[in-house]
Design brief:
Helix content: over 70%
Distance between the termini: 6 Å
Strand content: under 5%
Structural class: mainly alpha
Radius of gyration: 23 Å
Number of strands: 0
Low-confidence stretches: none
Shape: elongated
Largest sheet: none
Order of helices and strands: HHHHHHHHHHH
């Protein structure tokens, strides 16, 4: 079944690329705005031989990885802390509900004022956006602990660390991994967006330069690269999730075809 899905996905991609080649060739859209797939592929090949492209790719991946790591660490810590201290959770609930809906792009002026176009500006936006994904999922996981199991642990006088290790963490981990998977995609989106708007070094900056210089095939090629990065990030996050939750019934129930 999995092999069939792969073939269907490949067929769909091939059809999409063929459509992208045919539509401008038939004159349905102007090639100046939507070049054929072959021209985009040629531009992508030229980008792959340019050292500046790899430097930009490294800048994007650096901002994404550092921002995601900081967001995961802060989100898990804050989520566990707020989850096990009810009073603290109640005190911060209104603040969280106020800050969470603020779009990360609204912080771009603040990021530029504080850090200019340097890497910290990208990190500020990435961490802010990804942090909420991890925090909320961790909170849900901590609150999902079975009350009966919790009372049993208290009855056996397990230490706080033992309860966290053997009860709270196994319950919360599936939620945490879901938050990490969501945060990974959000972090990449914000990293590219920050580079595109702020002008920080990375793929987003190269896309903006290509658009400003009317290098349309190169612009589409770079956009395709960001899409491929998003796919790799999502597949990688799912693989890490399955590995981390190999003991969980939801993963063990998966039977490869």
């Amino acid at each position: 079944m999995r092999g069939g899905n792969t073939l269907l996905g490949a067929a769909g991609l091939a059809a999409f690329l063929a459509l992208g080649e045919a539509v401008p060739r038939l004159g349905l859209v102007e090639e100046a705005y939507a070049p054929p797939t072959s021209r985009i592929a040629a531009a992508l090949g030229a980008e792959l031989t340019d050292p500046a492209f790899w430097s930009a790719l490294g800048g994007t991946l650096t901002g994404w990885a550092l921002g995601l790591a900081l967001a995961v660490a802060a989100g898990v810590f804050a989520g566990v802390l707020l989850g096990v201290v009810p009073c603290l959770r109640e005190v911060t609930a209104s603040t969280i509900e106020f800050l969470r809906p603020i779009p990360s792009v609204a912080l771009i002026p603040l990021a530029v004022l504080l850090y200019g176009t340097a890497l910290p500006s990208v990190l500020l936006l990435v961490v802010y956006a990804a942090f909420w994904q991890v925090l909320l999922q961790t909170l849900h996981g901590v609150q999902d602990v079975d009350p009966v199991a919790e009372e049993t642990a208290r009855a056996y006088r397990l230490s706080t660390w033992a309860r966290v290790r053997h009860l709270l963490w196994p319950t919360a981990l599936p939620y945490v991994m879901t938050g990490v998977r969501l945060a990974a995609s959000v972090a990449l989106i914000l990293a590219v967006t920050a580079e595109l708007v702020i002008g920080a070094p990375g793929l987003g900056q190269r896309i903006a330069v290509a658009q400003a210089s009317q290098a349309v095939p190169e612009m589409y090629a770079l956009i395709a690269v960001t899409g491929l990065l998003g796919l790799i990030v999502n597949v990688g996050a799912r693989a890490v999730e399955r590995r981390a939750l190999a003991w969980h019934p939801s993963v063990r129930a998966e039977v490869p075809a």
